[in-house]
Specification:
Length: 243
């Protein structure tokens, strides 16, 4: 299809408006919010995991305390046997004493384990506290971000309405055949069917254009295609857009 310069200019204006509308419709304004929500989810899961570990460790301490109580009862019985006045052979005495020593060792080991678990519990509580503080910060950020998005969306919608109105006005000026041509081909060229020549280059594909071609653009009312990407070319000086 042959285009006149004024056709290309009309399509260039249409293309700019369509690009702006496209960008608004595809804007990524919720990106930050999504990141914040992911962080909140992950931290929530961490807190749950740590709280479960805490419960397990507290239960473990209770069990060990139960074991220590059992050991104490066994030792008390052995001590009773020693102090009952009953005559015991040396072998029996030694056996009871060695049993008491074993129980003392076991008790000491259990008490050491409790100390270790207590330290772990304190550290875990500290971690949970920090994670909860982080959660508070992130939840405030979430609220701020939601407000920001709401404002941004309102602003974008106002802009979009403005561009749609301009587009409606513009397409009244475009002959039907030309408009059909635009609509059929615009996606083929990555939403840019018209390319502006800047410093002798096609601004879309970057190709340096031959002098002859630039000369035709300068001295005729024709718009010609870029030899490389096929887009219609217009000169920067021919653009009279005021958005
Ligand atoms: Zn090109």
């Amino acid at each position: 299809m042959d285009l006149k310069k004024r056709d290309s200019l009309l399509l260039y204006k249409l293309q700019l408006l369509d690009l702006k509308i496209f960008q608004i419709e595809n804007s990524d304004i919720e990106k930050n919010l999504i990141e914040i929500l992911l962080e909140i989810k992950k931290t929530d899961e961490d807190v749950k995991k740590l709280s479960n570990e805490l419960k397990e460790k507290e239960l473990e301490i209770k069990n060990i305390e139960g074991e220590i109580a059992d050991l104490n009862r066994r030792r008390d019985k052995l001590k009773e046997a020693l102090s009952s006045g009953k005559k015991l052979s040396e072998k029996e005495l030694n056996s009871i004493q060695s049993e008491i020593d074993k129980i003392n060792n076991l008790t000491k080991k259990n008490e050491d384990v409790i100390i270790e678990i207590d330290e772990f519990i304190e550290k875990t509580k500290e971690k949970i506290k920090k994670q909860n503080e982080f959660l508070d910060i992130k939840k405030k950020e979430e609220l701020n971000e939601e407000l920001k998005i709401k404002e941004e969306k309102e602003k974008l919608n106002i802009d979009k309405d403005k561009y749609i109105k301009k587009r409606d006005e513009l397409i009244k000026k475009i002959p039907e055949e030309l408009l059909n041509f635009y609509q059929i081909n615009i996606n083929r060229f990555g939403r840019k069917i018209i390319s502006v020549v800047i410093e002798d280059r096609c601004s879309e594909c970057g190709m340096i254009l031959p002098y002859g071609l630039i000369s035709i653009l300068k001295n005729s009312d024709k718009s010609i295609n870029c030899e490389n990407c096929g887009r219609f070319l217009i000169l920067k000086k021919d653009i009279d857009i005021d958005f």
